Amino acid sequence: MNGPRWGYLSFLAPGHGRHQCCGKHRSVDRKPNRKPEITYMAKPEQHRVTVDGMRIRTDRLVLRPWSLQDAAAALAVYSRSEVSRWLAPAMEAVADESAMTAVLKQWIDQCSALEAPAGRWAVELADSGELIGAAAVLPLPPDGVDLEIGWQLAPAHWGHGLATEAGHAVAHYTFTQGVDEVFAVVRPRNTRGTATARRVGMEWVGETQKYYGLTLQVYRLRKGDLDLPTIPT
Question: Apex CA 161: angle with CA 158 and CA 164, to 5°?
Answer without folding.
Answer: 105
